[in-house]
């Protein structure tokens, strides 16, 4: 397979695996490859010990207990486990946002067909929840609120502490899809007031196909497994665990925690440079520009230009996205931008650029030059 590397500005879709992570994983493919459920011999014992050490290290960074983390194939599975498997008792009402990731939205739509009542709250022009609307939407039948920490398309950061306070005062569980935040900004579960949280390793320089679910330990007894066939992961997620992936995820989180301040300062500087230079050269708007948003994400609307045509012009040289990676290929406008009140024309003219640890300033400048030339050329052709 011939690989022609592009300038990669799609870190919100996935990240490259850090070399240190690959090195940490390799022994668990080649020599320490035992099954942690094999309790009768040393290779099984060693695999189990490595897995539990990884769990403890992640728990320390996230400020949770080891027994409150279970390993999954990713955040989407973790979200499904909770929404589909959580015992609701006499309550059958979920509240979420119209701008959530499809892992939440599509699952909620599926639950509606089985009698679950779901309220999809709107957001303001910056993509932020209205706390008064949230409070008014809670009823005696509400058992869960699900709001993501950082939006994957815009980088907007939701006020989780305020949401948590409202949930707590109404005895409602609070879940957050923190996939885009973990490893990029401090995520302290206790400080945020979360009952449930999901994350994926491949968003913070770990391997694909592994993630985790956090639940307060007293909640696990209310979780019915949706995958059965073994006693792994507190009997809540059957199947042989992905030991190399788990080891890699823990190492990736450790590295991200160590490098966070350095990465934040450099990447935010690059993002601001990218937005400022493009704004001076082209007619663009930045979604939620003045809102609290993650430092690596720019969702740009190229006025009077079609984003699909732009990506066809630059896609072989610059990797970016017209929306969530999980909905790529769709022609309709982003549901996130639509929820923010952005017109269909502007939404169809928008591209998400997300910068990461290995992005260089030269790559940023080269990508800008390609964008300016391509957009101007397309306007002439029109």
Describe the structure.
By secondary structure, the chain is α/β, with parallel strands linked by helices. Helices cover 41% and strands 14% of the residues. The protein is built from 14 helices and twelve strands. It has helices at 19-25, 27-30, 42-62, 75-85, 102-112, 131-137, 160-169, 189-192, 232-235, 243-281, 307-314, 335-339, 344-347, 361-381, and strands spanning 7-8, 69-72, 93-97, 117-121, 142-146, 173-177, 196-200, 211-215, 284-286, 297-302, 318-319, 350-354. The strands form three sheets. A seven-stranded mixed β-sheet has the order 2-8-7-6-5-3-4, sandwiched between helices. Helix 3 runs parallel beside helix 10.
Order of helices and strands: EHHHEHEHEHEHEHEEHHEEHEHHEH
Arithmetic mean pLDDT? 95
Query: What's the CATH topology label of the largest domain?
Result: Aspartate Aminotransferase, domain 2
How many distinct folded domains?
A: 2
The major beta sheet can be summarized as: 7 strands, mixed
Structural class: alpha/beta
CATH superfamily of the largest domain: Type I PLP-dependent aspartate aminotransferase-like (Major domain)
Q: Work out the radius of gyration.
A: 21 Å
Number of strands: 12
Q: Which percent range describes the beta-strand content?
A: 5-15%
